Request: fold
Amino acid sequence: MPRSLPVALVLAALLLLPLGACGDTDKGTGSGSGAGTDTAGAPPADGSPNGTELAANAGVDADAVKAAMERGRAFLLAQQDASGAFGDPAAGGVDTGYTGMAVMGLVGSMSKDEVRSNEAIKKALAWMVSQQKEDGSIWDKPIFTNYHTSSAVGALAAARVPEFATAQAKARAFLVASQIAGDESDPSYGGFPYKQQLTGAPADLSNMQIAAQALKDDGGVPADSPVWARMQRYLRRVQNSSETNDWTATMEIDGEQREVVPADDGGGFYNPAHVAKDFKAGLVQRSDGRYEPRSYGSMSYALLKCLLFAGVPAGDPRVERVVKWVSEHWTVERNPGFEHTTDAAKSSRKGWFYYLYTASRALDEYENVTGKPLTVRDADGRPHAWRKEMADVLIGLQGEDGSWHNPDDDSWDEGSKVLGTAYALQTLAILVNRLP
Reply:
């Protein structure tokens, strides 16, 4: 595969750079900006994005978002268990992961003063803390130890209720300790598994993005912590970039042993797997007989988000390449990357709400790092006000009862109205700068 971009793509990248970004870029400050975005308005005087200005620049209907969030909050509160927890009977009842996600959605739908005095939120947090183990982890299903703990830390960090600060610190310490360290040749080095730390345990980018976001929002892990450096090492192994990704694997594909190597489109995939079925969007066969993981939307945004959380500047080639991928595959109508499947209309909606939730936080963090609002430009150069487009599609999908769920695909539990509503509320809150 060629290691240099075609001239046409280079020119396209230059066309899509933010205004003023064609000169020298200081890659050490995070002030650079990747292809596929441009400025949508002047930044505030202090250089940081202002929530009101960003929402106004993006054309978000703040009143419509507020009304949708109020209806969604009412629905979600009506689903709370007497214990304070949230869950779904079809998914096994009350659940720490669902509860953490629901709390973050509720927090995003309220003012800070409302959050501090809201009994439903305190009750949910108290239930989660009641699940805390001696090692600091918070879970009710051992198979999801890390995911549940990450969700709990994220909820505790969002609510900032003082009486739970000690439990939050213990959970953060567990999460840090659960990162896979040791042998850097381990494909999972720097990642986070579903279960507790195990030698050779399979890590994945989905778990990493939940853990990284929780640690970022918690604020207790300093920027120079080795946690972030180890994350960067793992992130190299889930980006389709042969120049930086040294991962390869041999696995059985269609009855034969085949070599799988990174592609070169800059997007993200689930994990450096050793079994073909673990590549959620499938594999693509190259002319030389080897295979490449197909990049897809939710993991490409997770990659972008984690790179930024881990301190990689916006002008770094790793960030620029994934920004280019998400720009060229821009859509709010599906999770891009699954269009090749037999039932593409359904499969492309796989993880749709998770995709919007991940994309909103990734683009919001990109604005935070660059200090400028952005407009995404797609492969044809058309500009997109990303906040407005996401808000519009979510408002259009809200049910009469105030809930959201994925109407086209139940994968990853998105048929659940509780989880779907939690994702949607968090996304809307990010769009109007009420989270994190």
Q: What stands out?
A: The first strand starts at residue 37 and ends at 39. The two ends are 40 Å apart (CA to CA). Confidence is low (pLDDT under 50) at residues 1-35, 39-57.
